[in-house]
């Protein structure tokens, strides 16, 4: 039986990575084979592209280059890691996926939706997560948390309005497809969020 593909999305400081690890532990405790991965990254080529994307650059990076690098990394990650694992029955939990490109490169950077849809379709076809969890919180809070954690990468240096637009795109996408998306209030404690997430997974686990 094919594994389930679950993606975790949200702006900086939403606590996705913590929840991804807790979720992987939970699924393992149920006896499911699980693979935890992330974007950009998740296979050798994509991890190399990740370094190019995250390092701050005094000369900047054209938004179109950024978008194409995200999808170059995603194409490799999906073909070399995600699809083979799902086919062998492993559950794949991914810290960010295509919704981040819509939120950051369309919402944040202002790239047009039509070409992004076309690129997304060219790379992914009909392939999409079984469940996408949106960890929602006010950008002010997210950025404060993220800045406490480590030195800011190229994205974390963006303005509050960038993340306000990114957040709006995540929520908008979730509104249009309530079956695939689940929104959680990421200002709650990690334990509360994890319990809610495990409850939401019950339907996927029954299949
Ligand atoms: P990361 O350190 O993984 O951020 P976080 O801990 O917040 O998930 O860095 C990934 C950065 O790349 C993050 O700021 C969001 C950005 N990103 C995009 O802009 N577009 C994308 O398609 C993806 C996958 C990530």
Number of helices: 8
Total DSSP E strands? 5
The radius of gyration computed from the alpha-carbon positions, rounded to a whole number of angstroms, is 16 Å
- Our measurement of the CA-to-CA distance between the termini, rounded to an integer number of angstroms, reads 10 Å
Order of helices and strands: EHEHHEHHEHHEH
Give the helix proportion (percent range): 55-70%
Strand composition percent: 5-15%
Low-confidence stretches: none
| SSE-based structural type | alpha/beta
**How do the strands line up in the largest sheet?**
2-3-1-4-5
Give the biggest beta sheet: 5 strands, parallel
| Rough outline | globular
Give the averaged pLDDT, no decimals: 97
List descriptors.
8 helices, alpha/beta, 207 residues, 13% strand, binds thymidine-5'-diphosphate, 5 strands
Structural notes for this entry:
The protein is α/β, with parallel strands linked by helices and 207 residues long. It is 57% helix and 13% strand. It contains eight helices and five strands. It has a five-stranded parallel sheet with strand order 2-3-1-4-5, with helices on both faces. α3 (63-87) packs parallel to α5 (113-124). The termini are close together. The protein binds thymidine-5'-diphosphate. Residues 12, 16-17, 38-40, 54, 70, 95-96, 100-101, 104-105, 153, 155 line the site of thymidine-5'-diphosphate.
